[in-house]
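Protein folding task:
====================
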Amino acid sequence: MLVQVNLTRWKEGKNVTKLLPRDLWIVIVGMVLLYTGLSFIWPFNMVYMTGELGMSGTDASLVLLVNSFVGIISSIIGGLIFDRFSGYISLWIGTVILVIGTLSLSLFHGYPTFIWNLWLVGFAMGMVFSGLYAAAGLTHPAGGRTGFNAIYVAQNIGVAVGPFLAGLLSGFGMGKVYLGAFLFAIFYAVFFFVFFRKIDWKSEHIGSETKHRKRGMKRSRPTLVGLFSMILLLATYLFCQLPHVQWQSNLSTYMTSDVGISTAEYGKLWSLNGALIVLGQFVLIPIVARFKRHLHAQIYIGILLFALSFIVAMHANAYSGFVLGMIFLTLGEMFAWPAVPTIAYQLAPKGSAGLYQGLVNGMATAARMLAPFLGAVVVENFGGITALFVGIFILLGMAVLSTILQRSLQIRDKRNKALKGEELSENL
């Protein structure tokens, strides 16, 4: 009987995939092309700067900090342009900057030109990412987690393919790796200019359930309780992302320098991450179906799995240990990450969905900004890698607390809106 129930849930998930709107499929393919190219760059930033450019861990972390700050600003700018003008305009600007940035990076990646080009790519990445996630809500507003999960899976197809291809090219020098990133930026740009113009950016054929601005819609303001609820959601995301990013930054240095894992083996960990996320959907669909209306439960499960990943990594002294840690990390993000933009979409007032998705993407970027630098400071000044793991577990505990508070405020805000609606109905 249990097998039959699970099979039914899996078939329901499969049918949902078939029923995804055409416009959402365009966004999905765009995300695959985009993130495959970007995955030639981000996994190797710390290793490249500390290894080939000869920078210290702290200096390299400062570069990534500024890069992420630039991404935060561009995410918010992109979200505002999305809401006030058009999602196509926002993505058009980001796409053009991305092509220019990756071309320049492929040609000039010595010191200090690598740094300027990395920041230019970071600016483009912030605009395009916030635009694509906002487009997921625009093209499938009634889908709940489904649209955001589809974009998340598409992103991780890129994570599976990009680092693997980059690892193959790294044997010929990092110049070839950055050339690969530029070529995929071209593939994405061509796809964007051909197909993205066909998307219904003005929401003319989308029902009233959309939170995106459309003709005749009056923008609504957030309630004070709803605003604090959103702030706590962003705090939860930050407290989860700060530990997660350590796998890309300080843990990567620890693995390659102290444990003796090669750069190619480290890149394969992220290929494993992306492959598990894509293939794991067959298992995840029936599980998530049981928690479809319990988004906060998905976040709690994700936090628990994150903790397990760092417990394993803390005791690992061989490559196999880090593989197991990456598996737990991947399972954690499969539960937690798509739930966050879904809750943000629920909290967004009408006409502000693009801004709220920009804030979510900006918070992930803030983690990428702060995590390498803070982690390096802890490692170099407060007791090495052990102190880093202690700080990670403290952050995950704070994530649990902020999630509890956020959920209670969201319930309260929903109740207040329902009471206000009843009062208006009585007055009429």
About this structure: The radius of gyration is 21 Å. The chain has 17 helices and no strands.
